[in-house]
Specification:
- By secondary structure, this protein is of the alpha+beta class.
- Helix content is about 25%, strand content about 20%.
- The chain contains five helices and seven strands.
- The strands form three sheets. The protein has a three-stranded antiparallel sheet, with no helix packed on it.
- About 5% of the residues are buried.
């Protein structure tokens, strides 16, 4: 029986094969898409277009390295796989930003829950901070990581006019 199933499954996709053995009938329907297995959105929607880069101010030749991801919608009444992705990304609490790398594996997860989140690029106007400056950084709502410079008291010459 396992060999029969294997021969049915190994057929090329898009074909309908019926194999009978005794009373049982096995039907292989590779071309039928279940409504929960694949996205119904065509792939051309996810292809980058020059208008998107102009609209959002991105540069396709030099993309940003980090995303700021914030969950803006609830996961109640959402499928289990979207809840799992939200948990993997660390976005259980709404309106709390998380920083993620701009790599294909993370982007694939973000694509699954893109209707529940907001994604902004992380901008570094003062450059990448050092390890010592990380305690004195502030992440603005605009997506800028600002280093707070602490002024140290100057010598006696600094206080004299």
């Amino acid at each position: 029986m396992a060999g029969l199933l294997r021969s049915v499954v190994q057929r090329p996709p898009g074909t309908l094969h019926t194999m009978t053995k005794g009373v049982e009938s096995l039907i292989c329907t590779d071309w039928i898409r279940h409504k929960f297995t694949k996205s119904r959105i065509p792939d051309k929607v996810f292809q980058p277009s020059p208008e998107d880069h102009e609209k959002y101010g991105g540069d396709p030749q030099h993309p940003h390295k980090l995303h700021i991801v914030t969950r803006i919608k609830s996961t109640k009444r959402r499928p289990y796989w979207e809840k799992d992705v939200i948990k993997m990304l660390g976005l259980q609490k709404a309106h709390t930003p998380q920083v993620h790398k701009n790599i294909p594996s993370v982007n694939a997860k973000l694509k699954v829950v893109k209707h529940l989140i907001r994604i902004k690029p992380l901008r570094l106007p003062q450059g990448l901070p050092t390890e010592a400056d990380m305690a004195h950084t502030c992440l603005k709502s605009t997506g800028e990581l600002v280093v707070r410079w602490h002024l140290s008291p100057g010598g006696r010459g600094a206080t004299e006019p």
